[in-house]
Specification:
Layout lengths: L1 H27 L29 H5 L10 H7 L3 H7 L18
Helix pairs in contact: 3-4
Length: about 110
Amino acid sequence: MKNAVNCWLFKSAMSKEIVARVSHLSAAYGAFEVLADISFFPEYADLKDKPFMQDLRVQDLLTMSVGHEKEPLRSVIVMQPDWIRGFLNHPIVAKPGSKLAISVNTP
């Protein structure tokens, strides 16, 4: 069983690496700007007045340094029909780019 857990953790860690590389390649080819602010997501413009939202950049999303107290993704996916809105609506307590919050999911 220990090998199965290690394999799952390896896959979870590798998926983050793959998403990061694809994101950076996409940015390099001009698909989006890494330093773009939250206006990159116009459908969430109503969140712009939340604390620290004006400081939030796509780079902070890609580097898991949004400024959340802890990674909210698991609870956001389960509880929200729009997980992106739920993630962005989760309280940001530190200036984006200053606090790393890595999701640590277990099987």
